Here is the input.
Amino acid sequence: MKKIIALNWKMNPDSLAKAKELFSVVDSQMSKVKDSSDVVICPPFVYLESLKAESSIPAGRQEKLKVKLGAQDLFWETSGAYTGEVSPKMLKNMGVGYVIVGHSERRKYMNETDEIINKKVLAALKAGLKVILCVGELKRESRIKNKELRIKKAKDYVKNQLQKDLKKIHNSLFKIHNSLIVAYEPVWAIGTGKNCNPSDAAEMAEFIKNFLMAYDLRLKSVPILYGGSVTGSNINQFFDKKEINGVLVGGASVDKKEVNKILKEL
Ligand code: PGA
Here is the structure.
């Protein structure tokens, strides 16, 4: 299965000029990246349109070498009186292919519930966007001393999120197996510099895959990413695990040196 590197810029950088500079660091490496890998940049909404025009790969040629664009969020309705929101179709019509849904920072700061996330997942899939659904246990679970119990509690937490976030996707007419990506992001590992042990991340990735397959066999092909303090120095440890199909990178994705290191590992 091909590797996916999703770069989540979060609320960075603070100007379009800097966003273009960062984009060009990735773009200039793309000819060296193996064909089988997808690199997705998820910038703030305000930069999406401009960055689309920045690719050095001419339209229609070597499509697979192009940096893909993703949004960091979306709203579930198609249009109407929803001040400040961005619809799935707006993203699709702009040429955006991916969207992150259910990131823990939105769950925490914007009070996004699993019910809201489920609506967003369904709306994004219906619009033909690829969804990067983020799940992962909290710090509370990571504090449990007994390893077996810690892992069990983490799996229970993630399973509960998946059950709620993916509710009713089986009723959908769209090809979910081609459009869904799940990112395992333990909340305690995000932005802390304390990445998850790669073997534990691989065990969780396998657990997620088994959950998905029990839900619907077609979901066997859903890529499972790991996210949480991934850097150019530790990315290989995650890529070495066959259960992990890629990474979601936050902090290191807006650091030019780190970005170069990360792309060299592909
Ligand atoms: P981090 O963030 O790489 O800074 O830990 C990952 C994420 O939030 O997606």
User: Anything to note?
Assistant: The mean pLDDT is 92.
